[in-house]
Amino acid sequence: MTDAPLVLVANAGDGSISTFRIEEGTLERLAVTDGLSGCSTFAVDPDRDLVYAGVKGRSADEGAGILTLRLHRDTGQLEPLSRLDLPDGGMNYLALTREGTGLLGASYGGGYGISCAVDDGAVGEPVSRIAFPNLHAVLPSADGRFAYFVSLGADLVAQYSLADDLRLVPLTPETVAAPAGSGPRHLVLNDAQDAVYVLTEFSGEVLHFTRDTEAGTLALRDAATAFDTSKGLGHSRFGADPMKEHFIWGADIHFAGDGRRLWCTERTESTLGAVAVEADGSVSAPEHFITTEPQPRGFAVSPDGAYLIAAGERSTTVSLYAVDGDRLDLLQRAETGRGANWVRFV
User: Fold this and answer.
1) CA–CA separation, 318 vs 297, rounded Å?
2) What does DSSP assign to residue 235?
């Protein structure tokens, strides 16, 4: 048994999750848990060693759902415990709130978002549901009082308070607009909880929203490009083939350990870049970019900011980097599986 951190990687193409141990700058794959068809998102409760995974189902008789799995840290195996069926479509983003007693989900294909109570690892039927086209992500505030859903199809962020029973109660206004045609995709909140940053898929920008920590409401303040402008990428649009048309294809966003950089992926040119965050929360474009795993949909930064692990949808490996400011030093590439697209440190 070791205290070295674990890393989980979802491999949507294989319907599996790989478990790695990271120690002294090296990744060791401990286990691969199969039977997770189409898994492209999961949320981790490290205190209870529980993983909540969104799956698409393996047959017509078994549709989409959320699986609860127990993480065995010594072996890396994930043991299925329970399942919530989702007849209206699978989740593209899951996030825990209130110390693991609540679960939020966003469904891109289904165009709906949910909030659910969690009791001893079992996810209950949704207590609240919202609807916007192509919802792509959701995150709660750190205090569990608010939740923010990103709609790529409607170019907006929807904002809610969370009632005691986890019902989603619209704020006033219920939605905050993103630039038309930008395609907002993933979001993060800063440690101070007074700012939300959204990465757009079609325009490849980081949008900076200020946040009222008492009322929970957002206001768009500024933005910065997060893709390599020297590559001649065009502005994308809904329904386009970004690889074929050489369009911007923004994907994932995460803070570095110091909170002064936002790492972002762009899939057409397979790059990682660090958007700078100033003391006042404003953002500016990366000074340089790193070519990484092909079509990098998902990545994660270790809690201490020392490491970054990137996965590629057109790769069967993940890349482990040492983080040095806005630069990355490649330490290792490790086999994971097909269609790797979601990474989390545990």
Assistant:
1) 11
2) P
Strands 271-277 and 283-284, bridge-based pairing: antiparallel
Q: Are the beta carbons of 3 and 304 closer than 8 angstroms?
A: no
> 103-129: per-residue pLDDT in tens?
999 999 999 999 999 999 999 999 999
CA of residue 332 relative to chain centroid, distance: 23
CB contact at 8 A, 299 and 263: yes
Alpha-carbon dihedral sign for residues 331, 20, 295, 228: negative
Which positions ≥6 away from 59 have C-beta within 8 Å? Answer: none
CB atoms within 10 A of CB 232: 8
- Tokens, residue 238: 């809904």
Angle (nearest 5°) at CA 263 between 262 and 264:
115
Residue with tokens 């930008």: 182
Which amino acid is present at 176? V
**What pLDDT was estimated at residue 254?**
98
- d(CA 17, CA 31) in angstroms, rounded, equals 8
Q: What is the pTM of this model?
A: 0.97
For the CA atoms of the chain, what is the radius of gyration?
19
Tokens 């609240």 — which residue? 128
Task: Name the token pair of 315.
Answer: 């790769």
Q: Say which amino acid occupies 261.
A: R
Q: Is residue 246 left, alpha or beta, with left meaning phi > 0 and alpha meaning psi from -120 to 50?
A: left
Helix (H) or strand (E) holding 243: helix 242-245
Q: State the chain's maximal CA–CA distance in angstroms.
A: 53
Tens of pLDDT, residue by residue over 272-309, are 999 999 999 999 999 999 999 999 999 999 999 999 99
Walk along the chain (346 residues) in steps of 10 and give the mean pLDDT of each run: 84 97 95 96 98 82 91 98 96 98 97 98 98 98 98 98 98 98 98 98 98 98 98 97 98 92 98 97 98 98 96 97 97 98 97
Dig out the tokens for 137 from the structure.
């992500």
Q: Which two tokens stand for residue 11?
A: 């491999």
Structure tokens at 241: 């083939």
3 state DSSP class of 244: helix
Residues listed for the chain: 346
